[in-house]
Amino acid sequence: MMEMTGDVIAEVRGQVGCITLSRPKALNALSLGMVRDLMATLLAWQNDSRVLAVAIRGSNKEGPFGAFCAGGDIRFLHQAGSQGNPQIEDFFTEEYALNHLIHQYGKPYIAFMDGIVMGGGMGISQGGSVRVVTERTKMAMPETAIGLFPDVGGGYFLSRCPGYVGEWLALTGETIGAGDAVAFGLADGCMPSGEQAALWEQLGSQHFADGKAVEQLVASKFVAADAQHASARAEIDQYFGAATVGDVVAALEASNSVWAQAAAVTLRKRSPLMLHVVLEQIRRARGISLAADLRMERDMVRHCFYLRPGQSETLEGIRALAVDKDHSPKWQPARIEDVTPAMWQPFFESPWPTYAHPLAGLA
Q: Which residues form the Enoyl-CoA hydratase/isomerase domain (predicted)?
């Protein structure tokens, strides 16, 4: 059975539901249509007894694999947010509902996180039961660079990394490879990229006793991977465990460590306002459920586009990166030291009563 749904190709092969993201020119960035295709496919397979497990991969211009998913379609978000297109609301509500479904799926969900895995790509992989990385994996939640925050459940999964790694990844948007992804609990194992195609074929042709057997086959391909940043764990915890963003930056800038100085330079380029929002997000998320985190992030993302009319950090950040490409965002306020609690606290006030929240149904 082959369902060609444009940028999402879904088929049941043998006992495994196989999904390929096929929008390589955009690094498989998720559109609203793709989110809907993924949701419909997963809901259909959830109660299909023929499907023991689901496997998902991306594609690049050469074919399958090579890139997983670079995130949400930020050009669409800029256009919709600038023009007041209500589909921007649908996009986030439905994307977060999809993220929740994957975490709660109840069948093995195997994500081949080869190449770029960022933002929304993390949202459709972190909830998987087997998260596979390769030597080509470039993983990040780089939202502070576009005046956003690590959404798609980022508060939940980043806050559950060891120590203060979640704060470091969320604030800086730093890119990590396979070894660090495994060490930080953001992947389950690494396999050589060149062996993925053969495993994919095996998943679709081999007979399995149950879903567990599918997971065991994938795990049998795992190899060791070097962690690049794991050696910086002591520094990460030392600096990123500080009480406020101002404290983090001040400590980094006062340090004579090359690593700390570089981290400070990175933070100075990010949206000062959103750095404060993000630190609070990670700290709040550490103590709440995934559903509660996604509801909080849904509140936050509404505020990103509508809290300050004509002054959206997110629209300005996307403009500078992807629209005008001048890489010179005009953040408001311009400095970390100028952000007051009165500026970031409203991001955590829900625009909806509990019963009317768009994600009220998430359990």
A: 16-348
In a domain, 362, yes or no: no
Q: What is the CATH number of the domain that holds 335?
A: 3.90.226.10
114 labelled catalytic: no
143 given a catalytic annotation: yes
163: left (phi over 0), alpha (psi -120 to 50) or beta: left
Q: Which of 7, 95, 114, 143 is catalytic?
A: 143
Count of domains in the chain?
1
Average of per-residue pLDDT across 345-355 = 97
HSE-CB for 154 with a 13 A CA cutoff: 35
Predicted confidence (pLDDT) per residue in 150-198, tens digit: 999 999 999 999 999 999 999 999 999 999 999 999 999 999 999 999 9
In-domain check, residue 155: yes
What is the token pair recorded at 240?
């990123």
Measured between alpha carbons, how far is 139 from 117 in angstroms, rounded to an integer?
5
Annotated active-site residue 151? The verdict is yes
Query: Given 17, 81, 119, 120, which residue is catalytic?
Result: 120
